[in-house]
Amino acid sequence: MKKYLVTGGAGFIGSNLAFTLCEERKAKVTVLDNFSSGNYKTLLGFTGDIIADDILSRAWFDKAGPVDAIFHEAAITDTTVHDQRRMMEVNVDGFRNVLDFALKSGVKRVVYASSAAVYGNGATPMREEQPPTPENVYGFSKAIMDNTAREFAAAHPDMTLVGLRYFNVYGPREYYKGNPASMMFHLYNQMKAGKPPRIFKFGEQVRDFVYVKDIVRGNLNALDAQKSCVCNLGSGKPGNFNEVVEALNKAMGLDLAPEYFDNPYAFYQNKTQADLRQAKALLNYRPEWNLSDGIADYVKALEHTKI
């Protein structure tokens, strides 16, 4: 039986990954989470172990023990956090600590969450080799994580480090994220309450929305990567917010027109799109969920979830 460590496993993507590893791969899974933003409710029914500690600590090293691979999801993911030092400590120094654990424990494979935020308002479709141009400290922290991983992999060629640049992820178990939850979740709640879905004028901003089930599949595929790399994980087929509202209306059996309002943010990504050629070549990653089908599946999950 394989054994995996999932940091940030009480969070959105980490919890989905932990359940899939247990249920589909029949693996022994240990979750490491300090529950600062994760929620125990995301892990109801989880059959693995949990270590309640911080990635900046070393107290968990012995508790985690030897594992076959690490999935590193723990991070501050709220892009509205402006405490630059805290963001860099948790995201970058925390990652270095995880790599140190891997080195000391003999772990040969680390899969970690990077982000499309490294691209900022860069040219689309966004490719891994283009220079990072992050527009916030969160994106900057992820770009530095990628630098750290590249240097670590070069210094330790017997280890494989795979960075996954997530685009706009949505899906089950994001219910406790608060404001950073996807627009799908926020718009669903507005529409469920009979209110018009509120989006920025005029709903034409484009995002590479990717369903969490595809993100989990990309993580699992990274277990078989032949070399260290950084790859985009998105749908490759971006949609706009009007299309999101249309898909939600269809899935919910409603016909609510959007309410447009002015965008209050000086910085805003007007378009994101993942170039998936590297992910296909190195991870055999081929997303299965289009926007309409992903939203329909998500709505079914929301209708059967007690939050």
Quick description:
The protein has 307 residues and is of the alpha/beta class. It has 9 helices and 13 strands. Helix 1 (12-23) packs across helix 6, helix 5 crosses helix 7 (241-252) and helix 7 (241-252) crosses helix 9.
What does this structure look like?
- With 307 residues, this protein is an alpha/beta fold.
- The chain has a domain of 207 residues: NAD(P)-binding Rossmann-like Domain (Rossmann fold, 3-Layer(aba) Sandwich), CATH 3.40.50.
- The protein is 36% helix and 18% strand.
- It contains 9 helices and 13 strands.
- Helix 3 links the parallel strand 4 and strand 5.
- Helix 5 crosses helix 7.
- The protein is globular, with a radius of gyration of 19 Å.
Query: Which superfamily, in CATH terms, is the homologous superfamily of the domain at 3-170 and 212-234 and 272-287?
Result: NAD(P)-binding Rossmann-like Domain
Which H/E pattern describes the elements?
EHEEHEHEHEEHEEEHEEHEHH
Name the CATH architecture of the domain at 3-170 and 212-234 and 272-287: 3-Layer(aba) Sandwich
Give the N-terminus to C-terminus distance in angstroms: 33 Å
Structural category is alpha/beta
How many individual β-strands? 13
Count of DSSP-assigned helices = 9
% residues in beta strands: 15-25%
User: Which stretches of 5+ consecutive residues score pLDDT under 50?
Assistant: none
Highest CATH level, the class of the domain at 3-170 and 212-234 and 272-287: Alpha Beta
Query: Strand order within the widest sheet?
Result: 3-2-1-4-5-6-11
What is the overall silhouette? Answer: globular
Major sheet, described briefly? 7 strands, parallel
